[in-house]
Amino acid sequence: MTAGHRSRLSAAGLLRRQFFAGPVASIMLALLVLGGALLATGVPRAVAAMHTAALEDSLGQFPGREIDVVTSSRNLPELGASTGGTSLEPDIEAIWGAQEQRLLDIRAGMPELLTHVTADPLTVLVAGPTKASVAGAAEGSTSYQLFTAFDPRIREHIELTAGEWPAALTDQVPGPTPLEIVLADAVAEEMEWALGEERSIPIGTAPHDVRLVGTFAAIDPDDGFWTHVPPVALEPSVAYTPGGYIEVTGLGFADPVSWAALQESKLPTTMDAWFPVLPERIRAADSSELTAQLGEFTSQVFVLGGGSWEYWFATVGEVAFTSGLTEALDDAAVAASASDAVLATIASGPIGVMIAVLVLGARVVFERRRTGLELAAARGASPGQLRGILALEGLAIGLPAAIVGGVLGTLLVAADGGVSGWAIAALFALTPAALLVSAEPGLSPLRRARTDLGGPATGRFRWIAEVLVAVLAVTAVVLLYRRGLATSTASTGVDPLLAAAPLLLSLLVCLIVLRVYPVPLAALVRRTARRAGLVPFLGSARALRDPSAGLVPVLAVVVGVSVAVFSSVLLGTVQAGVERAADAQVGADAAVGGTPFTLEQLDRFAAVPGVAATAPVYSAKPTKVTADGRTRTSTLIVVDTDEMREVQAGRDSATPLPDGLSQTGADDVPVVLSKTVADFVSAADSAELDGEDFEALGVVDGRTAYSPRANWVLMDVANAKPFTATLVPRTVLVRFEPGADADEVTAALAAIAGDDAVVVTPEALLAELRERPTTQGLVISLVVAIVLASLLTALAIVLTLVVGRPARDRLLPLLSTLGLGRRGERALVVWEIGPVALIALVAGALLGAALPFVVLAGIDLRAFTDGDAQPAVTLDPWLITAVLAGSVLVTVAAATVASRIDGSVNAARAMRKEEEG
Q1: pLDDT, average across residues 337-342
Q2: SS3 of 381, please?
Q3: pTM of the full predicted structure?
Q4: Which of 81, 378, 452, 628 is 20 to 30 A away from residue 176, measured at CA?
Q5: For the chain, which residues make up each domain, given as ranges?
């Protein structure tokens, strides 16, 4: 042997020759491992990305004030410059710097994650409302109410459209120097306030002039900043006074330095200081940690000023921050848990099929190596050496495939899925070696046994295993029904029992199929024995005595078909639930919203041809509910109950409006509460709404068509005046006349509402809900589960027939010498898998139709439908039929392909195999 020459008979050379002697089976097994590792690393990352997108989408539906970390006070800010300097302009820094510095210090002490998801602090002080009197106005003419706001960073939120910025007021108030303000274009127009015009507001016992020097537009109208000021900042409120006169309310911004001159003016004030929450920075995986940090932060008090009394006003002192972000994160966590539970339930079936296919694939590889390994055993190779050879090939198949699959899964989805996916990928990498080594005891050709002698195993172990599977499956179903939805995944996350239930039931059905199918097959054998045809008798006899379909392929067929049918039923159920939720959220034939509407617009809405009735939602603003000293923010909804009943008459989803809701004059204001608020005040000795007593006439669990929040208080417009000074209709529900053209009516409503408003119909909302990340993720998962289960089922059938090929290689050539043609040979191949596959298809279909009634008893689907009620199981016959037809076609195609796998072995070689075997 020359130097450097590598012998082909070395260990490495023999292993290489063995691999390339039959590489197809090994390559196929490697592809299975690659696919499993890709799914193991890619799916958790995709789920994490879906949860984060769903969380951002959910937080985007909350007004900024509800999720920002905010403190609100009626006390005045402590004026003065900061000790170290801030980013405020020098003249503003001299007045607002001290408070700005304290807010920055508070943020610096926040936990790291909370700091990451919030922005630098903002402050706004709103004074008023006060009557802005027009000189020479006649009695009974339109009156004007003015809020005046002071924001140290106002130029970051608005831009001038006309005029100039207001100058700082430094003279005594009241006095001869007017207070300069700017108004939004729409507010200035509705208030009929021209640039340079002066109006007077009462300050103390004397009037003081206010001059309009400019108009503005919001830089970003969707900025959460605008939720911290009255809604009349960008659009005016136009309402009727109790005396029947028109009253217009708006808000103007003054130079923030001017507040130093006005702090002793005795104007009613409210000051918000807050840290804006940045939803795009919040990851779903951080929700629990962020919730804990929020809880810790909001339980503390911080010094925002001296808290001293200055003549007739007090400066702000110690404050506590609140945020609705905790509740929003909790709601998102419930939705994520429900999503995980559904996905785990869906995934359990394909995982079972994947394991079954891996077992079959490893068996095919082993059968390809059997002859060489038997020869090695006959020449003295020890069992340890044989196991080592198999283990090395298994590792050579599994490790590279798992690494490639894991890397692909990581690169395909840009999200953090944790390390659990790589742990599962490592198991896939070791699976081929483990399966191949476990097959080693059957290597001696002297120990080969004919499987066609005798019936299926009926030993004690099989009975024990079958009884154990049946007990586990029945126990899982009973526990799921006893537990129900209330204590399911909404609080516990992914439940192993729930996730395993479909697979356990599939195993039970498989065992039933294996026990039942020999009975009709034996009757078929007896019947065909009396006929002249060879193929039906021989095929049915071989299927009965030497069945290729053991537990593994039957499991693949049953699980594959049941997953497909279950997924189709679940998909139909979710789609029906989304339709009902869309109808409930709109609450009418159409809802117009997005901007405040004037009285003129309300009249024009009602006059549109095809409109039968309209009902405005006059207010949907933040409010405070206090119970035994504890306070939480809620949403105040104000409607005219008579108008709303007319619009929503006959709708199943209408919010109940008790008759006493519009009664006035009682000591306790009649209201309807959401269940969230009702639970908050239920155990309290005393409860108030913005400092006023109230009486709950009803409790509604969930949301209304008037507000997207599930946390609300509803009252009639007749009782609203003490609770809100601005009855601004931002949503109008519309009922169409029978036979009206919906497209024409909505187009007319949109034209009246303006470019910034939106007209929503149940059909349009349905399309939007279907685009939600959670719903899209479920639909994609269901489609992938159907396709993957079908492909794996087909592959399992092919592998099953490939495993049975050695027996056919001995039988078919002999039969061909007796005159059996190629069509008969293929028919015999189909007989190997056909009977049990047909029964498994039927069993899988029945199981798939039954699974939703079992599994959905413990899964909350409201996260996918965006509804307040659990959707009922819906069977879509067309969808189920299509899925079943696809499953049948896949099974038939797989059997046909497997029957055409080349089995051309001549009679002499077949006889030699019989002699050797």
Answers
A1: 77
A2: coil
A3: 0.70
A4: 81
A5: 28-53+331-444+468-516+547-580+772-916, 69-284, 590-760
